[in-house]
UniProtKB/TrEMBL annotation:
<feature type="binding site">
    <location>
        <position position="131"/>
    </location>
    <ligand>
        <name>Zn(2+) 2</name>
    </ligand>
</feature>
<feature type="binding site">
    <location>
        <position position="161"/>
    </location>
    <ligand>
        <name>Zn(2+) 2</name>
    </ligand>
</feature>
<feature type="binding site">
    <location>
        <position position="96"/>
    </location>
    <ligand>
        <name>Zn(2+) 1</name>
    </ligand>
</feature>
<dbReference type="GO" id="GO:0005829">
    <property type="term" value="C:cytosol"/>
</dbReference>
<dbReference type="GO" id="GO:0008270">
    <property type="term" value="F:zinc ion binding"/>
</dbReference>
<protein>
    <recommendedName>
        <fullName>Fructose-bisphosphate aldolase</fullName>
        <ecNumber>4.1.2.13</ecNumber>
    </recommendedName>
</protein>
<keyword id="KW-0324">Glycolysis</keyword>
<feature type="binding site">
    <location>
        <begin position="271"/>
        <end position="274"/>
    </location>
    <ligand>
        <name>dihydroxyacetone phosphate</name>
    </ligand>
</feature>
<feature type="binding site">
    <location>
        <position position="213"/>
    </location>
    <ligand>
        <name>dihydroxyacetone phosphate</name>
    </ligand>
</feature>
<dbReference type="GO" id="GO:0006096">
    <property type="term" value="P:glycolytic process"/>
</dbReference>
<dbReference type="InterPro" id="IPR000771">
    <property type="entry name" value="FBA_II"/>
</dbReference>
<dbReference type="Pfam" id="PF01116">
    <property type="entry name" value="F_bP_aldolase"/>
</dbReference>
<dbReference type="InterPro" id="IPR006411">
    <property type="entry name" value="Fruct_bisP_bact"/>
</dbReference>
<feature type="binding site">
    <location>
        <begin position="250"/>
        <end position="252"/>
    </location>
    <ligand>
        <name>dihydroxyacetone phosphate</name>
    </ligand>
</feature>
<dbReference type="InterPro" id="IPR013785">
    <property type="entry name" value="Aldolase_TIM"/>
</dbReference>
<feature type="binding site">
    <location>
        <position position="249"/>
    </location>
    <ligand>
        <name>Zn(2+) 1</name>
    </ligand>
</feature>
<feature type="binding site">
    <location>
        <position position="212"/>
    </location>
    <ligand>
        <name>Zn(2+) 1</name>
    </ligand>
</feature>
Length: 340
């Protein structure tokens, strides 16, 4: 199926919230990992979300170009072409854009979507994340207000972060401390600034102890019950059931129990990056170690071209990553629920 239209994307999010499940949002770094994610979604019979990060956007444009807009646009065009051949619906999303990169990444992509809309075309990306975790909440929400208005004009959805995600991802890092927990007052301020949908739809990453990357379980204390508390309090004050469309960041390595509790509180999207990266690279490492004397020209030998042909290790790596995507879809409850 083609990449989700704005209406299809909204319908995907509605189905998840109403059905009590969430979509895996898989960070991809290349056409190869994008293909692996699509394969995984198809095998799981799950719709899903493909994400491009800050560093990946540069990487995709090539080391000699280093242009986030160019890299993001190039992968999106590729995704629109190949995704049409899979029996699932996927959306494209840009992940974790800090203040210093809005002007060279997210704002140009939103402007491109507005221009495309003027020509009767859908946006290349269906949503974009503004990561205001490094600035004061008032500034975070002020920028979010401006971006939400632009997103409405672009027919895209904005994702924001209210609170701080610990750990490190693509150069954006925070300590693991008490700031990892969003408060009810933070959520109230969000509603005061952005509304609850009447000014434009947005996704909210409320933090409940989340940490990016690989971490020791003893250093992380997830409190998914905090999401339920915020949804209940703000829901009572706004007259809406589960007023926030929630995003779970730092989902890799989380227990199935914590994931289920978060989804029950209104999480409709969970980011998965570290685990799928590892699955992909672990397969390649296994190939290289087992066939070291074939992929290398040892002691003046010639090696074996079939062993160092990138396709010989790339295809198994795609299969390994796809299997991890299937696992994520099963954990989140999206498996077997693809829109028809």
């Amino acid at each position: 199926m083609p990449i989700a239209t704005p209406d299809h994307y909204a319908a995907m999010l509605d189905r998840a919230k109403e059905g009590g499940f969430a979509y895996p949002a898989i960070n991809v770094t290349s056409s190869q990992t994008l293909n692996a994610a699509l394969q995984g979604f198809a095998e799981a019979e799950s719709d899903g979300i493909l994400q491009v990060s800050l560093g990946t956007a540069l990487y995709l444009s090539g080391t000699a170009v280093q242009n986030r807009f160019t890299g993001s646009r190039a992968l999106a065009l590729y995704a629109h072409e190949v995704a049409a051949h899979y029996p699932v619906t996927v959306a494209l999303h840009t992940d974790h854009c800090p203040a210093e990169n809005l002007d060279d990444w997210v704002r140009p992509l939103i402007a491109d979507a507005i221009e495309r809309r003027g020509r009767g075309l859908d946006p290349l990306y269906q949503s974009h994340m503004w990561d205001g975790s490094a600035v004061p909440l008032a500034e975070n929400l002020s920028i979010a207000t401006e971006l939400l208005e632009s997103s409405v004009a672009a027919n895209t959805i904005l994702e924001i972060e209210v609170g701080v995600i610990g750990g490190e991802e693509d150069g954006i890092s925070h300590e693991i401390n008490e700031q990892l927990y969003t408060t009810v007052d933070d959520a109230r301020a969000t509603v005061a600034a952005l509304g609850v949908g009447e000014r434009g739809r947005y996704l909210t990453a409320l933090t409940f102890g989340n940490v990016h990357g690989v971490y020791h379980p003893d250093s992380v204390h997830l409190r998914p019950e905090l999401l339920a508390e915020i949804q209940t309090v703000i829901g009572r004050e706004t007259g809406r059931d589960k007023p926030f469309d929630l995003v779970f960041h730092g989902g890799s390595g989380s227990s199935a129990e914590d994931v289920r509790a978060a989804v029950a509180s209104g999480v409709v999207k969970m980011n998965v990056d570290t685990d799928t990266q590892y699955a992909f690279t672990r397969s390649i490492a296994g190939h290289m170690i087992a066939k070291y004397d074939q992929v290398l020209k040892v002691d003046g030998g010639f090696g074996d071209k079939k062993a160092y042909d990138p396709r010989s290790w790339g295809k198994p790596a795609e299969n390994a990553m796809a299997a991890r995507v299937v696992e994520a879809a099963q954990t989140l409850g999206s498996a077997g629920r693809a829109m028809r």
